[in-house]
Amino acid sequence: MNTFTQVLWSEFTKFHTVRGWVVAIVAGAGAIMAFGLLPGAQGSCGQNGPGSECVLPVGPGGEEVSDSFTFVHQPLAGDGSITARITSLTGLLPVAEPGKSRPGTMPWSKAGLIIKAGTGAGSTYAAIMVTGGNGVRMQYDYTHDRAGIAGAVSADAPRWLRLTRSGDTVTGAESADGHTWTTVDTAKLTGRPPTVEIGLFATSPQYAEQVNEGVLSGSMGGPTQATGTFDHLSLQAGSAGRAPAGSWKGESLGGPPNVPPVGRFEQVGDVFTVTGSGDIAPAVPGATGIGASITQTLVGTFVGLILMVVIGAMFITAEYRRGLIRTTLAASPRRGQVLAAKAVVVGAVTFVTGLVAAAVVVVFGQRVLRDNGVYIHPASTATELRVIAGTAALLAVAAVLALGLGALLRRGVTAVTTAVVVIVLPYMLAMTVLPAGAAQWMLRISPAAAFALQQVAPVYPQVANVYTPSNGYFPLAPWAGFAVLAGWAVVALGLAAFLFRRRDA
Amino acid sequence: MSFTVQPGQVTGFVGPNGAGKSTTMRVILGLDAADAGQALIGGRPYRSLRNPLRHVGSLLDAAALQPSRTARNHLLWLAHSQGLTARRVDEVLDQAGLGAVARRRAGGFSLGMRQRLGIAAALLGDPPALMLDEPFNGMDPEGIVWMRRFLRALAAEGRAILVSSHLMSELQDTADHVVVAGRGKVIADASVAQLLATASNGRVTLRTSAAAALTLLAEAGATVTRTDSDTLTVAGLPAESVVALLSRNSVPFSEVSAHRATLEDAYLELTRDAVEFRAATPREAR
Q1: Taking phi first (over 0 means left), then psi (-120 to 50 degrees means alpha), and beta for anything else, what does residue A208 get?
Q2: B54 in reach of chain A (CB within 8 A)
Q3: Closest by alpha carbon to A342, among A3, A9, A2, A1?
Q4: CA distance A249 to A229
Q5: Does A116 touch chain B (CB under 8 A)?
Q6: Fold of domain B202-260
Q7: For the domain B9-191, what is the CATH superfamily, name and number?
Q8: What is the strand order of the sheet B204-207 is part of?
Q9: Which of A82, A155, A205, B213 could form a disulfide with A279 if both were Cys (CB 3.0 to 4.6 A apart)?
Q10: Is residue A339 within a helix (H) or strand (E), and if so which, with residue range?
C-alpha cells in the first residue's frame, strides 16, 4: 500500500525515462503543428493587390453574414406596410460544363418582401419570402428563420405576402387569396431605424455537392440565380395608409467585386420580375460559403492522435512484453492504483502536449492560412479556447482509452492495432471514402465523435451547405461528442481494472 | 508447501524445472493467486504491505527491463514508488558493482549485469528479507563467485535470504539451508550439513576393475552402482564387510573409502521420485 502520489511519481519517472516515448509525443505535437503551419491550402483573398481582400459584412448579432441580393426598393419613413402577390419562383443552376446552366431552383432560393435599415451590407432587416424548397419563410437579422405555409409557389398556387412596420416591430403575414391573412412571425428591428428601405428582393445561394473520387472527397458547385414574379404590389406609408410619392429603384447589392452583377429588375405594367444571386443569411465556411474555419488548421490532429494512441497502449503492453509488470506490481501491489496512475500520467502528458500544439496551430495557423489568401472565419476567444482545450482533451482521453485496451489485451501489436482501428480509423474513413450518412453515424458512435470538439462554425438549417465532417461539421455537439469518447474510455479502463485485479500478473 | 527462511542464513530453494519454485515466489509477492491457502509476510498478505520493497526485496526475472531505460532510471522509478530518493539508487548501484554503467541503457547489459541490476533493485528498500529466483543464471564464473560472497555478506548482516536454483551445485558453497521442492511439495527441508550426511550415509566407494566384485557384493545384499570404469558405489554394506568379502574371495581392489556425497547427489536422490512421477503424469494439480 503506497500512497497514490508515490505510484504516480513512479509512473511518471517510467514515462520520461524512455526516450522513444518522449520522442514520439514530441513528434505527435510536431505533426499537428506541421500540418497546421505548413498548410497546402491556397486562396485568392488579398492575393491580387489592394481591393482583393476578403471582407465579410457583420450582422447585428456580431456574426459574419452574406448580404447579397437584388433589391427593388424605395425609402419608407416611419410606419407602413408592403403587400404583393408572388406567382412564380424560377432559377438557373450550374452544370459541370463551365458557362452553361440548367433551369431549377435551390431549396433556399428566395424571393419576397423585405424591410431593411438601408442598403449597407449587414444592416438589420426583416423579410418574408417564398423559397425553392422550404415553403414560405419569415426571416430577420440573418440568423432567425420561421416557417410559414409549405409547398412551392406557382401561377395556380400563388402566395400573398405582407410586411407591416409599426415602431420597431415588423410583422410578416401570408395569404393564399389576399383576403385571409395568417401571421408568420414578428421581428424587432435592431436599432429602430427611423427610415427604412422597403421593397422586393430575390436571391439564390451557391450550389455545392459532395464529390467522392477514390479516397479523396471534395465538393463542386457554382453560383445560381433565382427569379421571382410579383404583382398586386402595394405600398402604404403611415397608419393612415397613404401611398408614398417615391419610385422603385432596382439594384444588385453585395455581389463579388470585379464581377458584373447578374441581378435584373423589370417592370411590365404592374408585373415586377426580380432576378438575383447570393444570400441573405449567416456566412458559413465550406463549400457554399467562403473560406474555412480554424478547424481547418487542426487537420494534423489525426497524425498526433495515432502517436498518442500508440504511446497510450505501449505504456502498459511494454511492461507485459518484458515481464516488467511483475516488478511494478511487486513494488506497488495495489493494482487499481497502478492502472489509475498510468492513466493519469498518459492523460496528463498527452493533454499538455496537445494543448501546446493546438494553441500554436490555432493562433499561428490562422495567420498562415490568411497569408495564403484563405479567408478564415474568426471565432470568439471562448470558441478558440474550447477548440484548443478540446483537441488536447481528445488526444488525452483517446490515449487513456488506448491504455485501457493495452491493459485488456496485454499484447502490444494487438492493442495498438485495436486502438488505431477503434479510434483513428473511423475518423479517417469518415473524412474520406464513407458516404455522408455513414460518416455521420461513424462520428456519432465511435470514439472519433470527440472530433466534434474542433467544430467552430455553427450549422444553420436555413443555409444550404455541405455539412460534412470533411468540411468541419460533426454530427454531435462538441461536448456530446467528447462524452462519447469519454464513455469508451471509462468502459475500457473499468473493464481493464476489473481484469487487471483478477488476472495473474 | 510450507517452510521457514531464517534470518542470517541463505536458504537454497531447489527443485527440478516445473517444481513450483517460481510460482511459489509469485504467490508470495501477490502476483499470482494461489488455488488454496495464502502467503503471508510477517503475518500480513504482501498486497497489504506499505512500501513492500522495504519488507521483501525480490528478483524474479533479470530480463524484466525496459531496454531503452538506463540502469539508474530503472532503479529510480522503483525508488520513487517506495518513497526513496535518488541517493539510495546510487548506493545500491555501487553495492552491486554497477556504478560505472549506471547511465547506460539496460538493453545493452549482459545477463550477468542484469542479474546485478536485479539484485540492486531487490536491495533498494534495504529489506530484512530477500527472495531471488535463479540469480546465478547467465553469470560468468567471476560473477558467480561475486554473487556467492555478496549473498553471504547480506546474510551476515542478518537478512533472511531465499535463493532458488535448479542447479544444486551453485548452492553448495552459498546456502546454509536447503529446501527441496518437487511436484509442488516440499521434499526436504534441512541444513546443508544434514543433507550431505544423509546422502553419504553408509555408502562406500570401491575402486576395482574386477567384474566379479559387482556380482559378489550384490549377492551379499548390497546395492551396487558402477560410477566409473573402475569405481563402484556400494550401499547397504559397511566398509569392513566389503573388505572382508572381497579379501575372502581374492578379488583385487585398490581403495575402499567412505563415500563423500555432493549436494548434487543428495538432490538427485531426493528428486528422483519427483522426476519419475512427473514423467508419468506431466501436469499434477497442486
Answers
A1: beta
A2: no
A3: A9
A4: 16
A5: no
A6: Alpha-Beta Plaits (3.30.70)
A7: P-loop containing nucleotide triphosphate hydrolases (3.40.50.300)
A8: B223-228, B231-235, B204-207, B255-258
A9: A205
A10: helix A335-360
Q: Domain coordinates of chain B in residue numbers?
A: 9-191, 202-260
Q: Give dist(CA A416, CA A426) in Å, integer.
A: 15
Q: Cβ B66–A505 below 8 Å, yes or no? A: no
Report ipTM for this prediction: 0.81
Give the closest residue to A407 by CA, choosing from A504, A331, A496, A326. Answer: A496
Cβ distance A330 to B82 less than 8 Å, yes or no, reads no
Contact: B76, A333; criterion CB under 8 Å: no
Residue pairs between chains A and B whose CB atoms are closer than 8 Å? 97
* pTM as predicted: 0.84
Q: What is the CATH number of domain A65-282?
A: 2.60.120
What span, in angstroms and rounded, lies between the C-alpha atoms of B131 and B117?
14
List chain A pLDDT tens, one digit each, 505 residues: 468 999 999 999 999 999 999 999 999 999 999 999 987 777 778 777 777 777 888 999 888 899 999 999 999 988 999 999 999 999 999 887 777 889 999 999 999 999 999 999 999 999 999 999 999 999 999 999 999 999 999 999 999 999 999 988 999 999 999 999 999 999 998 888 889 999 999 999 988 876 666 555 566 778 899 999 999 999 998 766 566 767 899 999 987 766 777 888 999 989 999 999 999 999 888 777 778 888 888 989 999 999 999 999 999 999 999 999 999 999 999 999 999 999 999 999 999 999 999 999 999 998 898 888 888 888 889 999 999 999 999 999 999 999 999 999 999 999 999 999 999 999 999 988 888 889 999 999 999 999 999 999 888 888 888 888 878 889 999 999 999 999 999 999 999 999 999 988 7
Most A CBs within 10 Å: which of B24, B77, B114, as the mutation test of the A interface? B77
Q: What is the DSSP pairing of strand A216-222 with strand A207-213?
A: antiparallel
